[in-house]
Specification:
The complex is a heterodimer. Chain A is an alpha/beta fold. Chain A is built from 5 helices and 7 strands; from the N terminus they run ββαβαβαβαβαβ. Classes of the chains: A alpha/beta, B alpha+beta. Chains A and B meet through α1 and α4 of A and α1 and α3 of B.
Amino acid sequence: MEQFAPVKRSKDGQPVRYLIVDDSVFARKNLARMIESFGGQLAAEAGDGLTAISEFERTHPDIVLMDITMPQMEGIEAAEKIVQAHPEARVVMVSSVGYQENIVAALQRGARHFVQKPVKPEVLYEVIKYVLGEDGAVTSTAGAGA
Amino acid sequence: MKMDLIQPFINAADAVLSQGLQGATKVGNLSMEEAAYRRKGVAGMVALTGDIEGRIVLDLEPQTAVRVASHYAGAELPESDALIKETIFELANQVVGNAVSALNDQGFHFRVHPPVLVTSEEGDKTSEDVEALMICFETSLGCVYMNVALRYNKRRMSDHAVAGR
């Protein structure tokens, strides 16, 4: 997989920590490989919305990558609950169901962005940088943290 | 089955496969399936309910499924690996999700159900109002078959028409 200039946390220069939420093991592995190529670190994984909430509380990641269609609790509801409890949380929805109603609903309920599957690494990378804003810094150390 | 209903699924499969397998795909043989559906290998089925109802099956011969899953995993997988099934499920999900997104923007509403593994050798026979179309996508790793059986939900469509008056 292509390597990207590592994106670190501005405050301490540490790797950005991610919570990946998807009921598909395949999708989680795929996203984990992408964030590794961005110099990020996997804080935790979850296969449903309920587990996502508890994993967020446990690990306090910098970014949550959240699927929509999942068992027990769907992603939009989980995103809303996380953002209600932690308004600073950065949740990016990652779903193959990318119609306008879904995107609007996700954004209205607290998600910061939406990426449609199949995920292009270069698109996700740009979204991550955008969502982190000043809290993220692109470093020039090739391969650092990757 | 109308082609305007099928086309978004063909476009979505073409896009998902060509992006994921990093090579051009070619839409090969298209055929109507009048007899019962016969599974070819590892098959994942996604059901749809709503304005349009039916199901989509993504079906790969066992060796093709291993090659495709290994490509995505970035490592050679054994035929027994659970990730092979997961890969086919996720591909089916992505195809249906992308097609449904296009159809939803045209005003159709659906519920997409989680993928299930097709285990029986032979599926249900198609009926007059639910014909199945089998499309073969030729990829560099082998043929990926998509079997689409959909119909308009006439009751839901007439409800929309009444509401829209």
